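I had to read the description of the data format several times before I understood it. In essence, backbone conformation is discretised, so a fold becomes a row of integers matching the chain in length. I therefore recommend that a typical entry be quoted early in the introduction. For illustration, here is how one protein appears when written out as sequence plus structure tokens.

***
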Amino acid sequence: MSHNKYIPATDRYSNSVGYQACGKSGLQLPNISLGLWHNFGDVDDADEALKMIQFAFDHGITHFDLANNYGTPFGSAEKNFGKILKEHFASHRDEMIISSKAGHLMWEGPYGDGGSRKYMMASLNQSLHRMKLDYVDIFYSHRYDANTPLEETMGALSDMVKQGKALYVGISKYPTDKAREAYRILRENGTPCLINQDRYNIFTRDIEQSVLPLAEENGVGMIAFSPLAQGMLSDKYLNGIPENSRAAHSYGFLQKSQLTPEKIEQIRKLNDIAAQRGQTLAQMALAWCLHQPGVNSVIIGTSSVKQLQDNIDALKNTAFSNDELWKIGELGA
């Protein structure tokens, strides 16, 4: 890791990605947030990871999204991010929104997964230790756990705020009825839900039906993950499946079976619309997510500074004609 003293760009706010309020709260999130799910683990390029975080911050990307199990091995993204914070951002902590989560498998045995108070509290303490932080800005229940009463999971979140270990709390990937209940409990506990994080992209629009309207009704912000559908909404798969791509591996979330000839044809047609707009497909896909008024920020996962710059450039054209929206809607169905 390079040890030259990092001095952030002086125009990082005047020339930023822009901000919008998260739901009805006073907290503003950058239009684009940086996710550390991939590319920040021990198996990844540490120099590139550092450069991406510095480049993001230089462009006003203040929100860095993590979870206990991000990185290979689990926990390594938080540990590496903690090192970067300590060495390069020690005097800029108050300019950053750092989030973490617990809900998926993190360690062996009955207390390393789910939504119990035991797991949630232990996980937050471990995350703070790995990142060398006193508090996170946002802590999420990463998924609904049917084996734990919602009162228990939400009670743990509320206590994190009351203990000063999290400033805000949120939920991720909750079924609508459970989200409604979670919002009620958190509000009654005096720690209203700040944010809901869910999957949203041109190919996955389910949240428009009930998740988004419910969040809006409750003053809860919405942040979208997977805006590029695991890379499907990029130029990567226009000519089939490259060898080193996510879809070429038998593991991971994007499987070859998802990239049918029909899907690749849809991707090509979407790419044509993007080209007519003067954008790459990835840029159009990000701009499209932000065009939805209920979405306050999109989380991107990049593997290089170049990719990060390309993603930021999506903000140069975020206006869509009705005709474009209709065509995109047809192709995404």
